[in-house]
């Protein structure tokens, strides 16, 4: 993707953040064009919230620069950054009713009471809270509080929206619905959004651009499907996709065109590129890329199955050999534990990684 | 079986509690009854539990003859001053102690608690000398307010810090992002939410200030500026002690504050035990 400088809304350049000796953010470089929905995703404690909070101005950075709307904001306090944030706990002001919560930022800007009231009505209509404007936050359900938190951000028409795991306190079905609503809202308002989540499904389904973090570092960023298809390393490969990718050690064959797995009867899989013969590798296979067939047919490797989980639509198969191979199959497959089945993987779906550096060896 | 045992146990505890309450309230009861007795009835044996002929005149004499209004105004002045100084300086201090976590905060907290341990009678001499040298004794009530505020401050800071700690930091952060300064967020978000805790602590400080004795006794020599706690002792003369007058004085002195406490006790207990957000 080629990004013209003038459309960059948010930019991190070599940003580092230390808590004492702990390196919480490690050389972060990130450019977010105007109007883009970016998800920051990674395991708990990897520094996602810290990154978001440095952007909001709630944490100081140790080095580097942060730009918002073409302006360096390193030394600018949160109130002057013109960013709106939705907190995981919603952080609604308990002593104010919904209307006052929604328009608090406008009040601080000195907007008149009538305009504030109109704005509150307008936003309440967007988020569907018209009837609740006079309630206090404690009189609302979790989902309603979440909406107020969203509304409080929308009212401001800020440079960008920052979300810190806004859905993690909701139950599963509401979470799925709000996912769609937030995305629809983003499309309607068209403003830049930075969305922090530990849930890769949320990141993949909502975002235009996904940033995968681990231990304070950006491991990879790109459009969601690109991360799925071409993970840069084992971490990203294992983090994106569910169930997680299988990793099996292997060695490149004499021909350089296939890899022998250190697994059960040492099956050999054709690969999409030619590699140095004898090179040790880690082979990554996505559970949903394993094709089932007759164990005796040509091109299929035999694998014995130790357990089967059926959900109706899909069936999960687990190999008896270690490392355990997980296979996602169509729900119509009739496999029982103890069966020996044939498996095949298309060469383009065989991911190769360096065993030492864990970096991907597949060239796109 | 278990149920019966529990009931006995509860009844026993109830009786113990009643006994303890009676023990604590007895002096109060004795103050009110003595104030209404005649001189002879006070020393009657066996003692009268209730005065046979209540002497209301004693109250009228005390009210008219002992400058009690002046003394109580001084008490109110000192109590108000102590409360204002403690609340204004203590709120900021306890907020900082609630929000930051490091070695210096721990040391400050420990020092604050240490101050609570030192008795006023020990502190009063160095304070007297210090205040005399900077000329503060020219304003003895102000001197008393400052000296006693140093005593009430630790108690206030500890109560108030607990109130601030119940307020999630994210609320303040939301206010900062919404356009507040730190000070603005403190005033508009944190203070309103900690209000109950602060008010209750302030009320308790006011009551302490109202009854203050040790600093007033040593720092205020001018009779016209002394609070009621000192005024009461004017009745204790070497030869004649008019117990009924002293007790009437005491009754007038403490009844308002007692009434306030009884009226507000539910709020006080709530403010002390529950967080701001429930
Ligand atoms: N104020 C702080 N002081 C010290 N360490 C902190 C502080 N805030 C966060 N951390 C540490 O920084 C790391 C990243 O935290 P965070 O950004 O909250 O992670 P997450 O990705 O789960 O949002 C964690 O290991 C956390 O313990
Ligand atoms: Mg977090």
Helix and strand topology:
The complex is a heterodimer of chains A (364) and B (278).
Chain A: E1 8-19, E2 22-33, E3 37-41, H1 48-56, E4 63-68, E5 71-72, E6 83-86, H2 98-109, H3 113-127, H4 142-154, E7 160-164, H5 172-189, E8 192-197, H6 200-206, E9 209-214, E10 217-222, H7 224-229, H8 234-239, E11 246-252, E12 258-261, E13 268-270, E14 280-285, E15 291-293, E16 301-310, E17 314-319, E18 326-330, E19 340-344, E20 351-353
Helix pairs in contact in A: 2-3, 2-4, 3-4
Chain B: H1 2-35, H2 39-42, H3 57-65, H4 68-99, H5 103-117, H6 120-133, H7 140-165, H8 169-178, H9 182-210, H10 214-219, H11 228-231, H12 243-273
Characterize this entry briefly.
The complex is a heterodimer of chains A (364) and B (278). Chain A has helices at 48-56, 98-109, 113-127, 142-154, 172-189, 200-206, 224-229, 234-239; strands spanning 8-19, 22-33, 37-41, 63-68, 71-72, 83-86, 160-164, 192-197, 209-214, 217-222, 246-252, 258-261, 268-270, 280-285, 291-293, 301-310, 314-319, 326-330, 340-344, 351-353.
Explain the overall architecture.
The complex is a heterodimer of chains A (364) and B (278). Chain A is of the alpha+beta class and 364 residues long. Chain A folds into 2 domains: 5-239, 3-Layer(aba) Sandwich (Rossmann fold), CATH 3.40.50.300; 246-353, Nucleic acid-binding proteins (OB fold (Dihydrolipoamide Acetyltransferase, E2P)). Helices cover 24% and strands 32% of the residues of chain A. In chain A, the strands form 4 sheets. A 6-stranded mixed beta sheet of chain A has the order 6-7-8-3-9-10, sandwiched between helices. In chain A, strand 12 (258-261) and strand 13 (268-270) form a beta hairpin. Chain A starts with 7 loop residues before the first strand and ends in an 11-residue tail after the last strand. Chain B is an all-alpha fold. The radius of gyration of chain B is 23 Å and the shape is globular. Chain B starts with a helix and ends in a 5-residue tail after the last helix. The chains are: A alpha+beta (364), B mainly alpha (278). The complex binds adenosine-5'-diphosphate and magnesium ion.
